[in-house]
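Encode chain A's predicted structure.
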Amino acid sequence: MRLSRKRFIAGNAVFAIAILAILVFSGNSLGAPVLETGSVQSAAPVVQPLLGLSSATVGHAPTTVGLASQFLIDGAKGIVASPLAPGQTAGPSVASLLAQPPSPNARPGLDRALMAGNALTIPPNVMCQPVGPGCDTISVSSGGAVSDPNGINANNNDAVNGQTIEPPDQGMCAGNGYAMEIENLGEVQILSANFHHGSAILPLDSLMGLTQLGWSSGGDIQCLYDYDNGGHWFITEIVSRSPESAGGTFAGCFAAILDGCLEGLAVSQTNNPNGAWNIYFVDPNRVNNDPGSGYLLNDFAKDGTTSDAFLMFYDEFLLNGSTIPTCPAYGCFGFNGAQELALNKKALELGYPVVYANGGSDPYFTYAYENMGTDAKLQPPDGSCSSGSTAGQTCWYQVIPAQSPDPTQFDNAHGGTGFMLGSLDFFGAGDNRISVFYWTGLSSLNSYNCGSCSGAKGVHFGGQLFKDVLTYRDEGAACLASLGGFCGLGAQKAGPIPLGANCVAFGLAAVGTTCIENGIASNGDGFTQASYAQGQVWGAVSTLVNQEFGSAKCKTAASCQIHIGAAYYVIGTSGFNSGGRLSLSDQGYVTAAHEDIEFPSIAAGDTAAQGAIMTFTLSGNGGPRHADHGGFFPSTAFGYLTVGSHGLTGMVLYVTDLGKGAQDGFTEYQGQPGGTRPRWGDYSAAIFVPGKGGRFYFADEFIANPNCSPSHFLVDPSCGGTRAPYANWGNSLNWVA
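Encoded structure for chain A:
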């Protein structure tokens, strides 16, 4: 349920949160508005450090370091997801762990230098006839994947939350013989490694103890499994200080209530997700004093881990229009830029208290914080986010921490390093640059009172700019990508749309209006997931692509088709660890011939032989040639990658769960004949799980059941129990060895 930074800025000549609203339905009634949130191979990329003091150091001190009690709140301890397994015990006592505190292990930090330059781009071209790199064949075989089409769906969403949500914001993690699926607005199911459904779908309101606190779940959910300290599960989500019984998050956090938004953080006490959890809450209004402080939203949080740190990113929005300054000024578009946190991972995993019972702060619950919006040493090359003529607009966004599959893949150089990926399309015109950011010296977080966190050997934050990489452009506007320009919706195969056919009767449009099926949202060209393995940082962004058929070179619609694809990048870190310079190991395009793909995510295995996968939703209408028997309903698909494959290996993508019907949710039609904002899940999920052979786990949104007829729908809006009245999305869970 992510706010779009680009749309937020574009619509904010006056405070325009309402323009960006999605609507949530409860039962059959309309609810209140809710915030959301050239050639295939380019010239050799130019690499420049982002920062640049002297050559003596790489990186610079982050905005603040210290004790996390500044903004981290102790929640309930020992919240139980479900009964403990036979013989399972709760986690070790805090007192016993404090008796043997972590010891400092600081190492030299690193340095920085200047970046500059910008290149506006047009959608790149890939050759499909004759076929060339980046134009991939669609195979309806599974590619060896094992699939479970029975992930959380709109029916479950309705039953658990009492309302239907779009987008579902689906996520997945796996490890220690378990898999976990999490879903917007706040629900989780715990599965076996082979997807045996051993427990009911549990509301995160219960798991995080929100009901007892009078709070509610707010979406943007993420989970991961970390093998350190005996193994632990992490779940994060937006939390609202308002009860479900009084409108929940939509009457609290998203309604700009003072200090209404938190980031909930649940950490399992053991490696069994069915056991007890320790709960913490990050208060973004206590992290800094940015514009809008008191009414800040921690949007689109993403997590990762290193040997020493739990990394968290979120984009910071101002929810109260009266706090937005006049432009140009920092925050004048209602956006304060990316925020990066590094919390002491051991303190979280071992259940340390933020504050003792007697009121003293725990000296080992430490953190480092980087405000990417205000750091004068880390401003984008196109202008400052916090000052000057571009203030509030050229702000880092969606700077995503990389997840590693297991401790063998952590980068322990430079005192402990963690990586993040960010794109640079600040003006909505496309770009050919990406940035890799990094924390170094993270082992200093283990020092008493963060005593080693400052200084030359302490925690540092820096980054490196890559110019002239493969171009990308997807501005995500709510019109079909085939129209070009700023449009960013993927097409879908034509089929029955019972809600659309009855949109007037269901309160989605005015009398006399005909609702027309829209497309599948791509949300623009920011990173949504990053992976760190094999000494490489892996990530992908959405992009429009011109698919060329024949020698006409895009002179006719049939010879040049605009579709949504992905551009991906693989960044090597060996040179960084030895001399402070990252390098581009590989890059490529991934597109489905004649069709569209949405929300790419990459997971990399432990070894080069295991390679990596990219997963995404596949949809399309066959293009002007009416290929693939009229295209695809939204389906789950993936392909294989390696370092140096320059695209999917074999130039083929595999469909693991074929969509059975058209997306027919309320955001396709709300406000027709104008003003719609179609939504799709804001991200897919993929992770590698080590072991004998190893497995890639991945999950995507798709349409699991055929739509019933419009006349049947009027009598039974559940279409025989296969959908919710206002939405029909489902989720596909997959693993491949």
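DSSP finds eleven helices and 39 strands in the chain.
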